[in-house]
Amino acid sequence: MTTRSEDPLNSPTPVTAGAVSFRSAGWTPRLVLSLISLVCLVESAAFVNIATNTALPRIIGHFNTTQGGWLVTVSALAGAASSPLFGKLADLYGKRRMILISLVVAGLGEILAAAAPAFWVMIVGHVLLGALTALLFLCYSLIRDVYPKKLVPFAASVSVTGMGLLLVGAPFLIGVLIDDFGFRSVYVFNLAWLAVTGVVLVLTTPETSVRRPARMDVLGVLLLAGGVTLILLPVSRGADWGWGSARVIGLLISGAVVLAVYALASLRTQEPVLNLRVLFRRPVLFGVLGGGMGNSLALVLTTLLALLAMTPRKLGGTYGLGFSATHYALVTVPFTLASVVAGIAVGVLVRRVGPRLLMYLGLGLLTAGSLVLVSAHDTLGKILVACTIAGLGSGAAIASMPNLVIAGTSESEQGAMSSAGGLSSGLIGAVMTTTVFAIMTPTAKSPAPGLLIYGDSGISTALLAVAGVAFVTLLFGVIFLRSRDGGSAEKQGLAPVEGTALAV
Question: 27-207 sits in which CATH class?
């Protein structure tokens, strides 16, 4: 193994006295505020997604458009395509700096969305809001670099799952903002949230000293972003365009070709924007796949839970609780709290049992929770049991991801490789969301104009597909990505020795 002292590319910039004292401290008021600020920044990414989905009917009515779905689509596209770029720039210029830059970009998006005089301006604003995706991996990557070594596993796990704790009240807050002040108010609120937490971050958290000097892989950025966009675009719009249409097929083939060209080019590039050799290390690949599944399947499940909870029983027939949007929080709160509890548990247990076993557990619980929903979703009690199990699984999978990535990479590789998690979540989320609606659409009926009800068989089959994908990911990890030493190296590698990483 090579240490950074032997490799000039891995040599960090000088460490400041403040960073040294921060790195060597235990839990202090400053460190607690630092972690809170990072968690709150990750919150902002989740908040704007929930707010946009909730405000969508108002936005569509205000601008008199039938293209409201593009607000969600363009944010996902921009986030997935830009994640590797933010990760690479973080390795070059510092993670805290890139967090602050992402806040500035997203802040501009919030301003455009809040003041948009036309729908196309709102679209541009949501493209810029895609920069918030970078917070999902830059925050825990910064934790790895500057937090005390013994606190890294816990803080990293809480940073990606602790966000749910604050979002318990988000549906109620969003409802009040929209009802009393209009849909634009949610963007103003999130802008203020970003500004305050960004200032706290600057005052409490030092910049990482880790740098990886290299030329920017401009061609790689263009190829990777272009390939991902070409694939996600038809996946997200395939139902409207027709899955067999020349446009969809042509874009999918073009995206695959562009990504294949990137793969060949990256293997010949000394410093690619997304290093495939590092990505295919077993702990890294399993972390990226498992964490991507935890993030994306949680989104899909909550979408399906909304259908189960908010559809009136007289229209759903064998399902439907007839809840209002406010009462729907009775379902989302247990799911969210279970995810938070699982994240904290992973942070406490990860050094004892290793992140791999906890990822296995998370994927297994996701499978079990989805299967319970398949067979029992006609009463609130049954739904609460299922969503609690699934929430625990999602939280465990998401919280295990940063620890597996940390275990499989050196400090200088962290930014670029952590971004692969955002890319994975975007791709899997777009594919799974489109897939479940494609499954449900043939069973849909319209009892009244503007009202669409999905059949129980369609929802059950979609839930079965979610369970199947989670289980296949678990099997893939156990059979093909299992640790050669039983995971002991991963436990020791939760905060790798300077400049080292676990072998493939």
Answer: mainly alpha
For residue 189, pLDDT over 60 is answered with: yes
Tokens 């606190």 found at: 151
Each domain of the chain, given as residue ranges in start order, spans 27-207, 217-272, 275-504
How many C-beta atoms lie closer than 10 Å to residue 495's C-beta?
21
- Asked if 212 contacts 222 with a C-beta cutoff of 8 angstroms, the reply is no
Residue 414 makes CB contacts below 8 A (sequence gap 6+) with: 91, 95, 141, 144, 145, 210, 405, 406
429-462: b (≥16 Cβ within 10 Å) or e? bbbbbbbbbebbeebeeeeeeeeebbbbebbbbb
Question: pTM of the full predicted structure?
Answer: 0.72
- The distance between the two most distant Cα atoms of the chain, rounded to a whole number of Å, is 71
Question: Tokens 């979002």 label which residue?
Answer: 167
Q: Which CATH number fits domain 275-504: 3.40.50.300, 2.60.40.10, 1.20.1250.20, 3.90.400.10?
A: 1.20.1250.20
H/E run at residue 479: helix 456-479
- Give the C-alpha distances (Å, rounded to integers) separating 236 from 77, 239, 260, 435, 437: 9, 8, 21, 10, 11
Q: Which residue has the tokens 């318990």?
A: 168
Note the pLDDT tens digit of each residue in 3-30.
333 332 333 444 455 555 566 667 788 8
Q: Is 14 exposed, middle or buried (0-12, 13-18, 19+ CB in 10 A)?
A: exposed
